[in-house]
Amino acid sequence: MPTFTYGTTTIEYTMRHQSSKRDCTITVDWKTGVSVVVPDEIDQAHIDAVLRRKAPWILRRLIEFSEIKPLSTRHEFISGEKFPYLGRQYRLKVVAGDDVSEVSLAFQNGRFVATVPKSSNPTWREEHLRKAFRDWYITHGAVKVQQRIRLFAPRLRLEPSKIVIKDQQARWGSCTKNGTINVNWRVLMAPMRIVDYVVVHELGHMIHADHSAEFWTVVASVMPDYDERKEWLRVHGATLEL
User: Fold this and answer.
1) Of 223, 160, 158, whose CA–CA distance to 195 is shortest?
2) Rounded to two decimals, what is the model's pTM?
3) Domain definitions of the chain by residue range
4) How many CA atoms lie within 13 A of 141 on its CB side?
5) Do the beta carbons of residue 192 and residue 209 sit within 8 Å?
6) In CATH terms, is domain 144-239 a member of 3.40.50.300?
7) Model confidence over 46-62: pLDDT tens digits?
């Protein structure tokens, strides 16, 4: 993995080439770290110059993410533990059954109820309950995001071809050339206003594929306070994990 040095700090980054790029683009993500996308025809000296110029900002973002990550605690999937859905916290009740062979998860009377085999060990339960929660977010998230798409898409005179809730490690959402909008299931843990931001953001990409001024003008036309919502996701995104 390539590196560059800023002061006494050595920073690793990943790099990929993209023929449509005109200059370097740098992103800092709380999961994947520093990523650099560059044009096909570019020399390393130019890349190094861009990295040096952006180094204070890169280091500041890395420090911010290092402070955020400890806030994200790994769930144990035991009774009484709380799990977020659309910004609210709901308790989990785990029921062990003698005649149960698989894990099932439901949302009943304002709480999550999981049924597990009585003979299963804690490690097995955690693994399968983690998957059950992920599947639950994906299933119920699809319905919720469809509702929000129907609310916002007409305002931009758009009609996505398909909505997919999926496991995306490095993105909160994405939009394909054929009009498919993908949304990271983890967003369903955030408040609805943040889900709305991700939806509007990806709808905006149906008009402008980049993050140009024109793109943000489209987003602002529907969501004037998008910058505040974007900042919430930047600061709290690391906590949206099981």
Assistant:
1) 223
2) 0.71
3) 3-71, 144-239
4) 29
5) no
6) no
7) 899 999 999 998 988 88
